[in-house]
């Protein structure tokens, strides 16, 4: 048996990973666009954070970028790591600054971690080139 055949993931795992990536892309593209558009609730939330509205624009742009990267097969690992970093920040912010539930951020963090784990070979390859 060939090593390439033995290491290929089952078709359902590949399809499932695409579903997770698609859901993450939809969630982050929507959230990022809302931040960039200036939805009043988000403007108020970022005002409460205290870093200024530039941080809302930066966060929105990074979320949209992450959504694009996670759908790009050769850059999905980079997108997943970027989204993990964003969600760690979101979780900490919810827990210690703005209040409210951190559960949505934790769910998105977990789904991003699933993609990063599935694409760990990409991460290792990118890290070896640095």
Briefly, what is this?
The protein is an all-alpha fold. The chain has helices at residues 3-7, 11-37, 40-49, 53-71, 76-98, 103-118, 120-128.
Structural overview:
By secondary structure, this protein is mainly alpha-helical. It has one domain (11-128). The protein contains 7 helices and no strands. Helix 2 runs antiparallel to helix 4 (53-71) and helix 2 crosses helix 6 (103-118). The protein is elongated and about 50 Å long. The N and C termini lie far apart (34 Å). The mean pLDDT is 91.
Mean pLDDT value: 91
Number of helices: 7
Low-confidence stretches: none
Beta-strand content bin: under 5%
Provide the domain count.
1
The helix/strand class is mainly alpha
Record field, number of beta strands: 0
* Helix-strand string: HHHHHHH
Shape: elongated
Query: Can you give the helix content as a percent range?
Result: over 70%
Largest sheet: none
Terminal residue distance? 34 Å
Rg on CA atoms, Å: 17 Å
Structural key phrases:
7 helices, single chain, 130 residues, mainly alpha
Note the topology:
Blueprint: H1 3-7, H2 11-37, H3 40-49, H4 53-71, H5 76-98, H6 103-118, H7 120-128
């Amino acid at each position: 048996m060939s090593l390439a055949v033995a290491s290929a993931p089952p078709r359902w795992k590949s399809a499932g990973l695409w579903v997770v990536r698609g859901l993450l892309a939809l969630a982050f593209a929507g959230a990022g666009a809302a931040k960039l558009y200036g939805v009043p609730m988000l403007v108020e939330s970022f005002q409460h954070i205290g870093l200024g509205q530039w941080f809302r624009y930066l966060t929105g742009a990074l979320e949209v970028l992450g959504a694009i990267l996670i759908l790009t097969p050769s850059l999905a690992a980079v997108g997943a790591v970027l989204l993990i970093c964003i969600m760690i920040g979101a979780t900490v912010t919810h827990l210690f600054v703005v209040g409210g539930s951190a559960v949505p951020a934790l769910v998105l963090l977990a789904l991003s971690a699933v993609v990063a784990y599935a694409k760990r070979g990409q991460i290792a390859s990118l890290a070896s080139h640095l």
